[in-house]
Every structure is written in structure tokens, then in C-alpha cells.
Amino acid sequence: MTLLSIRSIRFPFLLPSLFAVLALAGCGHTRNKEMQGDPEVLYQKGAKALSDNDFGGAIKIYEALDSRYPFSDAARQGRLDLMYAYYKDHQAESAIDAADQFIRENPAHPRCDYANYIKGLVYFERTPNFLERWLRVDLSERPPSDARKSFAAFQTVVTSYPQSEYAGDAHERLLYLRNRLADYEVHVADYYMRRGAYLAAIARAKYTVENYDGAPAVKSALEIMTDGYRKLGMDDLAEQSASVYRENFPETAQRVDKKKKWWAVW
Questions:
Q1: Mean pLDDT by 10 residues, the chain (266 residues)
Q2: What would the DSSP string read from start to end of 93-147?
């Protein structure tokens, strides 16, 4: 085939491909332009994307900021915004990792309250999920590993940063989690009682009383402690548990005052 004949051949499929390549190049140029600038300029671009709910775009900008200017004040603030962007973008593990890294690298930073709060939120929203709430699943029977982690994070906010703007909301969520965790401990304690594992039942009930004070399940925990000690013949400890019960729940004190032996019917 001569050179002339080759030039005379048309390649109609090349034109759309050329446009696609040019479009991709243009997009890449736009993205590169977004990533340009000093730390403050990049931070402002990330903040703008975040305020526009463009969480994916904000994540890319904040990650670029942290990569290029890791020791700048803008990058430090960007890390806080980044963990929030991960959280809103449903990247739970990335949000937790970012929060943990910030706390580890800046243990005395005043915004560690926020990092712990984000951790608490991420774990909180894992338990229970929408389907479980809709189906009214009995959560007292579910091992609450995420609830414990959420409880620990919110507790850090409340106890270590009581003046934090997030302390109020963290406290409200703590109350819910406290009740959730106490319910589970009592469920396990009751399981052990029904199988005659009294020491194990007492241990779980005692843990509930000592760690989740104020939870409605504490009432049942004291009943289990009292009954468990009696079944083990540890009457002094049973009476101590019953005394605590009577002091806190006088309206139903008869539940723990059933001391008569089976033959003492009078």
C-alpha cells in the first residue's frame, strides 16, 4: 500500500477517542489546579468543599494538604476536618484511624475533645443499625463491642473535657449507651444464673452495679447478686446486696427479702 493510499484511509473511531482523552486531560488539569496553593489556600479549598457537602472532594484536598505540608497549622486543623469528612462520607475506619492518629500525635492538644467525639459518633452509629431498630431486635442479647468503644470515647470527652462544646451531647449519648451496656451485662448474668454458674453471674451483676450506676438494669443486677450469694451460702454478702437494693428500690424491697427456707412455710 502506497503512502498516498494510507493517508486516504479514514479512521472515524479516532475522533471520539481523541475528545475523551482531551476531556480526561482537562479534568486532571482541574484537579491539579485544586491541589495547588500554600497551606492556607489548600485548607480554604477543603473547607469550601466540606461546607458544600462535597465530602469526597474535601477528603482529597485535606489529604493533599497533609501530605505536602504535614507540619503546618493548616494541616493540623485539616486533620480535624478530615476525620469529620471521613465520618460524613461513611468511611468509618478511616475516620477512627484519623482520630486515633491525631490523639496519638497531639495528646495535649485542646481539640482532642473533638477527635474523641468523632470516634464516639462513629462507633455509636454502628449500634444499632437502622434495620435492627426497625425490626425491634432485642439488643440486650447482642455483644455490644461497638457500644463499649463509643461509651469509652464519649466518657473521655465528658470527664477529660467537661467544658467542651461537645460534652453535653456526649453525656446524652452516654446515658443511652450506659443503659444498653447494663442491659447486656444483666442478660449474661441471668444466663449464668439459670445454668447454676452463680459466681460468674455475680461477677457480671457486680460489674453492672459498679460501672453503670443509674441504669434501670442495676435493679435486676442487685437481685441477681442477692440470689447468687444466697445460693452459694454466702449470707453476709447476700444481705449486703439486699441492703443496697432496699435502700435504692424500697418500693419493691420484698423481692430481695425472700429468705425463708423451703420448709419454713409459716
A1: 43 48 49 68 95 96 94 93 96 96 93 97 75 47 80 97 97 95 94 96 97 95 97 96 94 70 34
A2: HHHHHHHHHHHHH-TT-TTHHHHHHHHHHHHHTTSS-HHHHHHT--GGGS--HHH
What pLDDT does residue 21 have? Answer: 45
Return the CATH architecture of domain 27-101.
Answer: Alpha Horseshoe (1.25)
The pTM assigned to this predicted structure is 0.75
pLDDT for position 185: 95
What the block records as the C-alpha cell of 206 is: 457486680
Amino acid sitting at position 104:
R
Cα distances from 1 to residues 4, 11, 100, in angstroms, run 8, 16, 68
91's enclosing H/E stretch is: none
Residues 6+ apart with CB under 8 A from 149: 119, 123
- So where are the chain's domains? 27-101
Residue 185 CA to residue 210 CA, distance in Å, equals 12
| Sequence-ordered list of residues with C-beta below 8 angstroms from that of 111, at least 6 positions apart, any chain | 80, 102
- Residue 227: what pLDDT? 96
CA distance 239 to 228: 11
* Sequence-ordered list of residues with C-beta below 8 angstroms from that of 38, at least 6 positions apart, any chain: 69
The reported pLDDT for the residue numbered 247 is: 93
Handedness of CA 29, 35, 38, 42 (dihedral sign): positive
Beta carbons within 8 Å of 86's beta carbon, 6+ residues apart: 59, 92, 94, 95, 98
